[in-house]
């Protein structure tokens, strides 16, 4: 806490921004006070509570949905769907209810139809309705037919539908008509030149809807060999075509397109993406293996290979551990039954798993952490972090100790942590390590100031006292004396130091 | 900060809700009789804001279903589908229709596309052989007012579709949405913009205006409009938000203007859904505040409330009666809100303390100012190594790359490898997307070697060169963000301490460390009513800026309309940006109407870059 605060002040002073400390005690106390005040009020409020009207806090069901909200109602339905029998609505009833609703339909103050509805729309009567089986209400059909907007272009209306089919709209006019949802026809765009002009005009409208519409027409009327290279020259149109194919789920065509345009890296990624849809782990592994030959960028090629190796390794580990767990052969599986399978987990999770269940296995075994570390070239820092987290969880303090012990060539042991001992302490603390262990590692922190801060934070009195002694800071030591328990070992220790006439105090 | 006396009033945007509701009712009436309504998940919350179940029931909606990929039969003889114009939705509907056909069941079907239909959706109907069996309608629900001054198109997919895929499908939609506002609250006399999408939207909108019959000549309420693309400023949304509403959004995810507080906030076993807008008196006062001010405010408020309750002591019966009938209800409401917000603050504090938020902010500020880049990289690495949060880690990588104008190859590769190891290999797809959209850049080798570096290299011995290169590569590299930040004065350099209680500029939204770039550009252009002086800035942003005078010049709009300015964010804006601009408005006597394709934040933007199984 103290450390942070000091750090903060240093930093903020230098940047002229006011420090705002998220774990500041003061702010928290303020908040706590407010809360207490409000909670006290609650009693008063509850006393007065005789006419509870929830006008701003909405009623919420157990699942958190507002009662009467649409989401809530939907949920209710999905619950009752199976139980409710399908009612047979007779025509008579349905018609009468329509009549009723037509009468009760509220009149809106603003007439929207003129506002929202497109103009100049006269689709042929019965265009929607006449072919529909069981059409019983011409009223609704005609209303739909004449009133609704038709902003999206409609290719199916061939020229036979229109009396003015003779009119020859050029590419620009056609595209504009499509945009405004007026009748048009694409049939006359038969030459390649005309088709390309059409697509170029469409792109110029910036209307993606029209662009895609034209591309669908082109896709139907041109061979791939002709269409693809032309799209290659038109990035804007190409983007739309790719999106369309993706949305339609036409991966094969898309792959062909990308290959034809020489965009092999994109094609490789697209192919690789399909592994996301495979749930079966063995099939997934095989699929990723099949990706290896594709032309990925150099770094991605390595990653894909690693991906395959990892999946493959996970299959082996999983099969093995499942067997061992079932047979009850290893104690660790009995003490900590596996919660989930390791299949399809990231490498670091797999490493953690290995450090948890297979620590100390030789580098030769697939499941051991040493093997994973070597195969995937995991950095020291990453390895130590993961192994530490796993061993701390198991309270295997001895392993933790060994993790940081190195021997030099003379055989002396030395403690070393690639992540810095202050991080080690942090991880230990977050995993509820006892003070005794914490103290051991706080003592190893190099930076004296950091060490003091950590020791203060985690109440490692001995280190704090020693640090102040080393700093010859009599005042701080006096202050600290007030914080330790009266009559404790620590107090005595402080007194001995304070009475030590050998020390030349700086204050 | 108090508003200026001459600040214009906001128009009443609730008319947009009424219009949408009425049109939906009108469409439902087109299919008379009992019907089941299938609603796409993404449309449920917006729909909830403008209609409720009883309105739907009034118009013969028998049952409501959420559209998911399960095949639901429904109970009525008429099925209505309310969907976004997506191929997958249409294919799902086709499945339902064809399943009916297979068992010889006759029903009526209607698809309502919102806000518009797309041609490709109709082709799917055709291909599936159900064209003609299904009627199609459009529900022109373009705009949802989330608050007095925020209007959202609720199209989060706009960001990915346009900026990543380069698909122009929503541009026309955006233009039409703007046209709605223009016809109701315009005419605009002046428009400004920056970005490719902004430019196109402006063009399409002009075309629509031209094609529409002459507009009624009315007094304009909104006089000016500014269009801005999200990719003009990626840095701002990638920063941690620290104004109250922004933090709320980052932590609880505000959805369609409402938030769900779990048991940890309500300190009961129930969850509560709360609308967060200016109707909430407590929220209204703290939403734009830096989080550090919020506690003070809440405790003050709590004390005041206590005092008001204490008044009861020593009241006679008549006074008590008045108190109960007049004040008590208001007090109770305030009390309820207050305890909710205090609960929310506590929950925010708890979570932020756990994840070393302070250290994170420090590292972010370092990046913005260009200090201690190495420290920030190792902070990011640690985040990744400890598998803290995949999205948070991505955010840090992107912020690093954006502020440094790309990562040097070595850093890029190493961060990417560590990321893939921690969160899974399939993220090579995510990285590819981030690169394509420009949130992440790998510098090409050679780019980093600057003149200073190479001369230094000659001067010193080989051994020190390595170290120097490291030191220099982060300093001397060309960086658009740095250049832009310098030209636009984004990092306040003030000698005295920045008092967050009395903000002096928009930087307060980031604790005084950084003025959001997009907002600064808007400020500069509006103030000078031109782009002159910003040539260097626009050049670094790839141009595409414009300014245009609309309509006939003789109808010079009133000065209050000139100060009511519509801001159109294409690709989304954050609550922090809104807070900053509200502050700016108060300073300058302007009022902004925030129109956005969606409210966004770093998590939403980055999540939209992930690839999922189809």
From TrEMBL, chain A:
Keywords: Cytoplasmic vesicle, Endosome
Gene Ontology BP terms: intracellular protein transport; vacuolar transport
Highest taxon of source: Eukaryota
Segments crossing the lipid bilayer: none
Compartment(s) where it occurs, according to its Swiss-Prot or TrEMBL record: Cytoplasmic vesicle; Early endosome; Late endosome
Gene Ontology cellular component terms for the protein in this record: early endosome; late endosome
Record carries keyword Lipid biosynthesis: no
PANTHER family assigned to the protein according to its UniProt record, in alphabetical order: DEFECTIVE SPERMATOGENESIS PROTEIN 39, SPERMATOGENESIS-DEFECTIVE PROTEIN 39 HOMOLOG
The protein's name in its UniProt record: Spermatogenesis-defective protein 39 homolog
Species lineage: Eukaryota, Metazoa, Chordata, Craniata, Vertebrata
UniProtKB/TrEMBL annotation, chain B:
Stretches assigned to coiled coil: none
Keyword Protein transport appears in the UniProt entry: yes
GO CC terms of this entry: late endosome membrane; lysosomal membrane
GO term, biological process aspect, one: vesicle-mediated transport
Keywords recorded for this protein, A-Z: Protein transport, Transport
Protein name: VPS33B late endosome and lysosome associated
Locations listed in the record: Late endosome membrane; Lysosome membrane
Organism expressing this protein natively: Callorhinchus milii
Main location: membrane
SUPFAM superfamilies xref list: Sec1/munc18-like (SM) proteins (SSF56815)
Entry's family note: Belongs to the STXBP/unc-18/SEC1 family.
Membrane topology: Peripheral membrane protein
InterPro entries the UniProt entry points to: Sec-1-like_dom1, Sec-1-like_dom3a, Sec1-like, Sec1-like_dom2, Sec1-like_sf, VPS33_dom3b
């Amino acid at each position: 806490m103290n450390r942070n605060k000091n750090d903060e002040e240093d930093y903020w002073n230098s940047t002229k921004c006011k420090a705002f400390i998220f774990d500041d005690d003061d702010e928290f106390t303020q908040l706590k006070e407010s809360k207490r005040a409000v909670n006290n009020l609650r009693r008063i409020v509850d006393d007065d509570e005789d006419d509870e009207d929830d006008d701003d806090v909405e009623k919420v069901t157990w699942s958190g949905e507002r009662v009467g909200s649409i989401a809530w109602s939907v949920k209710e339905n999905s619950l009752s769907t199976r139980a409710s029998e399908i009612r047979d609505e007779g025509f008579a009833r349905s018609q009468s209810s329509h009549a009723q609703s037509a009468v009760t339909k509220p009149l809106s103050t603003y007439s929207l139809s003129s506002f929202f509805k497109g103009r100049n729309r006269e689709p042929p009567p019965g265009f929607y309705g006449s072919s529909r089986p069981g059409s019983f209400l011409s009223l609704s059909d005609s209303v739909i037919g004449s009133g609704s907007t038709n902003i999206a272009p409609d290719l199916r209306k061939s020229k036979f539908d229109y009396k003015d089919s003779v009119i020859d709209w050029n590419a620009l006019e056609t595209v504009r008509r499509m945009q405004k949802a007026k009748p048009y026809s694409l049939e006359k765009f038969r030459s390649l030149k005309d088709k390309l002009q059409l697509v170029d005009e469409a792109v110029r409208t910036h209307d993606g809807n029209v662009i895609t519409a034209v591309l669908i027409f082109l896709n139907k009327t041109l061979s791939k060999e002709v269409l693809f290279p032309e799209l290659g020259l038109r990035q804007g149109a190409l983007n739309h075509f790719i999106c369309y194919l993706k949305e339609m789920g036409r991966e094969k065509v898309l792959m062909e397109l990308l290959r034809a345009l020489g965009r092999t890296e994109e094609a490789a990624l697209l192919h690789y993406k399909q592994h996301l849809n495979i749930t079966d782990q063995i099939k997934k592994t095989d699929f990723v293996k099949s990706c290896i030959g594709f032309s990925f960028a150099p770094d991605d090629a390595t990653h894909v290979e690693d991906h395959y190796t990892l999946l493959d390794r996970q299959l082996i580990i999983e099969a093995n551990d499942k067997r061992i767990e079932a047979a009850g052969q290893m104690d660790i599986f009995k003490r900590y039954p596996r919660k989930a399978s390791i299949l399809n987990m990231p490498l670091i999770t797999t490493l953690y798993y290995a450090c948890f269940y297979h620590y100390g296995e030789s580098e030769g075994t697939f499941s051991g952490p040493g093997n994973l570390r070597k195969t995937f070239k995991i950095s020291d820092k990453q390895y130590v972090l993961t192994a530490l987290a796993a061993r701390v969880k198991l309270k295997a303090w001895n392993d933790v100790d060994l993790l940081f012990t190195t021997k030099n060539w003379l055989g002396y042991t030395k403690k070393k942590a690639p992540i810095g001992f202050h991080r080690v302490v942090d991880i230990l603390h977050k995993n509820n390590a006892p003070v005794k262990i914490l103290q051991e590692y706080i003592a190893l922190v190099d930076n004296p100031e950091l060490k003091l801060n950590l020791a203060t934070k985690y109440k490692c009195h001995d280190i704090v006292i020693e640090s102040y002694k080393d700093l010859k800071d009599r005042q701080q030591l006096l202050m600290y004396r007030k914080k330790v328990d009266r009559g404790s070992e620590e107090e005595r220790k402080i007194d001995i130091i304070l009475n030590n006439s050998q020390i030349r105090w700086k204050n | 900060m108090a508003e200026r006396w001459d600040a214009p009033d906001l128009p009443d945007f609730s008319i947009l809700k009424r219009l949408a509701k009425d049109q939906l009712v009108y469409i439902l009436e087109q299919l008379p009789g009992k019907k089941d309504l299938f609603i796409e998940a993404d449309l449920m919350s917006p729909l909830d804001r403008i209609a409720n179940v009883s309105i739907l029931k009034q118009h013969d909606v028998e049952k409501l279903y959420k559209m998911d990929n399960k095949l639901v039969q429904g109970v009525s003889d008429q099925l209505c589908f309310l969907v976004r114009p997506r191929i997958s939705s249409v294919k799902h509907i086709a499945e339902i229709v064809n399943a009916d056909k297979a068992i010889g069941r006759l029903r009526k079907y209607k698809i309502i596309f919102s806000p518009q239909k797309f041609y490709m959706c109709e082709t799917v109907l055709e291909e599936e052989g159900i064209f003609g069996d299904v009627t199609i309608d459009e529900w022109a629900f373009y705009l949802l007012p989330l608050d007095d001054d925020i209007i959202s198109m609720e199209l989060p997919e706009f960001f990915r579709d346009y900026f990543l895929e380069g698909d122009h499908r929503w541009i026309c939609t955006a233009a039409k949405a703007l046209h709605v506002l223009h016809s109701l609250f315009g005419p605009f006399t002046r428009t400004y913009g920056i970005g490719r999408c902004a430019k196109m939207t402006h063009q399409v909108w002009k075309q629509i205006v031209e094609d529409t019959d002459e507009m009624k000549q009315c007094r304009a309420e909104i006089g000016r409009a500014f269009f801005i693309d999200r990719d003009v400023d990626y840095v701002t949304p990638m920063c941690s938000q620290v104004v109250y509403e922004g933090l709320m959004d980052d932590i609880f995810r505000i959805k369609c203007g409402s938030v769900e507080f779990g048991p940890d906030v309500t300190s009961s076993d129930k969850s509560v859904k709360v609308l967060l807008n200016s109707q909430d008196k407590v929220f209204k006062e703290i939403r734009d505040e830096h989080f550090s001010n919020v506690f003070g405010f809440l405790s003050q408020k709590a004390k005041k409330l206590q005092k008001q309750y204490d008044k009861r002591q020593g009241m006679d019966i008549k006074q008590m009666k008045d108190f109960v009938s007049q004040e008590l209800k208001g007090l109770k409401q305030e009390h309820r809100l207050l305890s909710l917000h205090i609960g929310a603050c506590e929950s925010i504090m708890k979570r932020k303390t756990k994840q070393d938020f302070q250290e994170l902010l420090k590292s972010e500020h370092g990046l913005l100012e260009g200090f201690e880049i190495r420290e920030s990289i190792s902070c990011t690495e640690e985040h990744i190594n400890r598998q803290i949060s995949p999205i948070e880690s991505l955010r840090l990588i992107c912020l690093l790359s954006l502020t440094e104008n790309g990562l040097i190859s070595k850093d890029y590769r190493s961060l990417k490898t560590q990321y893939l190891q921690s969160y899974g290999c399939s993220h090579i797809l995510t990285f590819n997307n981030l690169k394509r959209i420009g949130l992440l850049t790998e510098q090409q080798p050679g780019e980093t070697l600057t003149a200073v570096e190479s001369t230094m290299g000659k001067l010193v011995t080989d051994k020190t060169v390595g170290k120097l290169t490291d030191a220099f590569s982060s300093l001397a590299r060309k960086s658009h963000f740095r250049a832009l930040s310098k030209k636009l004065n984004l990092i306040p350099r003030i000698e005295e301490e920045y008092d967050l209680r009395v903000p002096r500029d928009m930087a307060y939204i980031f604790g005084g460390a950084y003025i959001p770039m997009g907002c600064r550009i808007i400020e500069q252009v509006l103030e000078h009513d031109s782009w002159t002086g910003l040539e260097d800035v626009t050049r670094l942003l790839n141009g595409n800026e414009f300014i245009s005078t609309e309509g006939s010049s003789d109808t010079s709009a009133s000065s209050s309309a000139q100060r009511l300015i519509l801001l159109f964010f294409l690709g989304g804006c954050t609550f922090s940006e809104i807070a900053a601009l509200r502050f700016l408005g108060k300073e300058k006597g302007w009022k902004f109407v925030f129109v956005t394709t969606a409210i966004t934040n770093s998590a939403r933007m980055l999540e939209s870059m992930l690839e999922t199984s189809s």
